[in-house]
Amino acid sequence: MARVLTPRAEDFPRWYQDLIAKAQLADNGPVRGTMVIRPVGYAIWERMQADMDARIKEAGVQNAYFPLFIPESYLRREADHVEGFSPELAVVTHAGGKELAEPLVVRPTSETVIGEFMAKWVDSYRDLPLLLNQWANVVRWELRPRTFLRTTEFLWQEGHTAHATEADAREHARDVHKNVYQAFMEEMLAVPVVPGRKTKGERFAGATNTMTVEAMMGDTKALQMGTSHELGQNFAKAFDITYSSAAGSVEHCWTTSWGTSTRMMGGLIMVHGDDNGLRLPPRLAPIQVQVMVVKAGEGVTEAAAKLRDELKAAGVRVKLDDRADVPFGRRAVDAELQGIPIRIEVGPRDLASGNVTVARRVDGSKSPIPIGDIVGAVTSALKADHQRLYDDALAFREENTVDVKTLGDAIEAAQTGWARVPWSAVGEAGEKEANGKAVTVRCLTREDGTMPDSDEEPNLIAYLARSY
Amino acid sequence: MARVLTPRAEDFPRWYQDLIAKAQLADNGPVRGTMVIRPVGYAIWERMQADMDARIKEAGVQNAYFPLFIPESYLRREADHVEGFSPELAVVTHAGGKELAEPLVVRPTSETVIGEFMAKWVDSYRDLPLLLNQWANVVRWELRPRTFLRTTEFLWQEGHTAHATEADAREHARDVHKNVYQAFMEEMLAVPVVPGRKTKGERFAGATNTMTVEAMMGDTKALQMGTSHELGQNFAKAFDITYSSAAGSVEHCWTTSWGTSTRMMGGLIMVHGDDNGLRLPPRLAPIQVQVMVVKAGEGVTEAAAKLRDELKAAGVRVKLDDRADVPFGRRAVDAELQGIPIRIEVGPRDLASGNVTVARRVDGSKSPIPIGDIVGAVTSALKADHQRLYDDALAFREENTVDVKTLGDAIEAAQTGWARVPWSAVGEAGEKEANGKAVTVRCLTREDGTMPDSDEEPNLIAYLARSY
């Protein structure tokens, strides 16, 4: 078979861009750093959204929508926040044919404008916790854009919550981080992640604690797949988000925020993609099974349509491909590129013997299956293929992660994988040294893998890696 | 009962804003003309989106996402388009800390940027029709903003399609207009609409034909609930969207676009709202039934929870309100404000006789119903209440629409309702005269109510009205 993509081993970044183009996932937009998400890519994002949204609602959070334009003065109210975001802002200076009295920032994130409204809506402790989320586009001017991973405009969800106590805020942020984000990535994307705490230097601008879920990409680099922040009382004080307590005193709230974005599309590609294209985890796949007419005639199209109907009735997301005027080979290559988990190839010869061919994207296997057994075979294959993708990604991460004792060894190991090293052997000075060599501390965890309460806890483990 | 809202008859615009505030549907944003859609309002919008999206997909259209920022030069390529939108544009001049070489327009609509990509994606007649839709925010600077109806930023869906022939483009636009838009408004929103053709003066900037669905609000003004446009080859020529035909010649495509927005939220309120608040059509309502504990004790909470479970199992969207610490009257007022179709009031006295009280929002009726009959009673009430809302709105429209023969009579009748008048008695000169008196031609229809193919057809009827 002719090579469709630059092989991963030859040039990983080019393989990534090739895959996105050939699978028709996205195009570059007309403005540098922006992207067009094409129907094949957007259908995957819609499945991500629907599943994530259900988990967010299950956590008791309500969706809302806040404005795109934020008065520049709002961003200035929290010192760390404005300092962190200023270099990335896009600014509207003219509207309605006139120059504006105050320039408007196109939201890079919505802590500030949501803080303003939390202050209006929260009155007493009975109004807390206030748990909000929005699905929206945000803009951060990127100097080195890369499709899905770093784009000037991206799509995301951003949760914003206000609580009466620090303990309640912390518990909420951890609940979302584990039961929404980590669970979604493992159960829906089949991507194993390491949850951990960001160092002070890697925190979100304005946060007192940033938690991350890190995944290893196919080139062993790390990708931050989502983050959850405790914001302490920083935004509550900047925006005067207060409540009257049961005892009658006026107190500042404790707020959190948490976000995941179309960046997950990039992670999905780089964790599961291979030299033939994307491999979609079955729970996520918009089309789980493509029933393909190899060659029309001899009842083939009818048999294929019947299979489609049976699979649909069994709850499988199935598409019939009966485009007999397009060469079968090209259709199969396209299905592989787009990562459709299962192809069922229906041809006259197989059919004569009562079989069809089941081709599984996860491992490239092809087997003849009696036509009467298809529904059972497909449903169990879809289940197994999710696990297979997850297990393979986890095994790959473990093979490429080493435990070391010193900063020097960690920086060296991070050239070709992830290094786990005692945080006490790194520290803030060591972190700077690593950064100078394009290695970052991805996160800190306890030895047993649980989430630290502070960077100062003894015996913390640091993950060092190159990253996107 | 104390009056909650300014009565509709006293001051309709103030009633509208009161309702939006008191029902917690939306707030004004910090930038003039922008809005914050609060959770109660956003849940309604999400239900609109989900149903509309399913209808759009059923029509064979795929979702995608195009960038927020459009190079200013794109808008200039189609002369009518730039002329129509220039006064409403918001412009980004600075980003990433620098002045941009070319200013970026925040999309007021996406014909131009989508045209650019259609040109890349369409090669042969086999690629047609190309049917795309996106859910997005758009920005049009508004001088006289009003929540949901005219906001500087609003949420919408915009369909954009390319076709090989004018006939195919026309058929598609009409199919969406009737089977997606009109059907959605009648079947989901319980809002009767008049589909018709816009006059030349009221067309979308760059269209060769604009079709509208017009609804009568509670003050007898008209609201354009959605529009579908035939764009001819205007954008195809401006963006070079061409295809090679089966015969091998290179031809320009014919394109369409169509959109509906959060403006429908305003229409919903003004069609169905009354002096007690919103009335939600049952199919749309995020919460169809609120089961309310009138007073805790004597097994009331348990009985209410059991009813909630039974209704949920029967597919009803139900919420249990057991906040015994909040006065029952206040909870009932809030449920009315928010338009929840049915309240089931569970109290100790009723329960002792085996009954609960079913209160229907549509007509304010209250009846005792044996607790064993609730599921059946609720499901048939929800069905009937949709019809009731639709029928009432239609009857109101008919009562307030008059047939007249002359322009003068039409303008006079339009002060207090809608006028139907022969288009030949109005014409472009008459339209300008009417506009001078704040009356517009809402649309043209044939005498039998079907959609005209041109403004020049004989015997067309014009609808004249004041409008939002």
Descriptive notes:
2 copies of one chain form a homodimer. By secondary structure, chain A is of the alpha+beta class. Chain A folds into 3 domains: 12-272, 2-Layer Sandwich (BirA Bifunctional Protein, domain 2), CATH 3.30.930; 289-380, 3-Layer(aba) Sandwich (Rossmann fold); 401-465, C-terminal domain of ProRS (Translation Initiation Factor IF3, 2-Layer Sandwich), CATH 3.30.110. Chain A contains 14 helices and 23 strands. In chain A, helix 2 packs across helix 6. The longest helix of chain A has 26 residues, at 374-399. The model of chain A has no long low-confidence stretch (mean pLDDT 96). Chains A and B meet through strand 2, helix 2, strand 3, strand 4 and strand 5 of A and strand 2, helix 2, strand 3, strand 4 and strand 5 of B. Strand 5 (90-95) of chain A pairs antiparallel with strand 5 of chain B, so a sheet runs across the interface. Chains A, B: It comes from Paractinoplanes globisporus. Chains A, B: It is found in: Cytoplasm. Chains A, B: Residues 32-281 form the Aminoacyl-transfer RNA synthetases class-II family profile domain. Chains A, B: Its main location: cytoplasm.
Tally of helical segments of chain A: 14
Shape descriptor of chain A reads: globular
Number of domains of chain A: 3
As laid out across the biggest beta sheet of chain A, the strand order is: 3-7-8-14-11-10-9
Instruction: Tell me what the CATH architecture of the largest domain in chain A is.
Output: 2-Layer Sandwich
The chain-level mean pLDDT of chain A equals 96
Main pleated-sheet profile of chain A = 7 strands, mixed
State the CATH topology of the largest domain in chain A: BirA Bifunctional Protein, domain 2
Which residues of chain A sit in consecutive blocks of at least 5 with pLDDT less than 50?
Answer: none
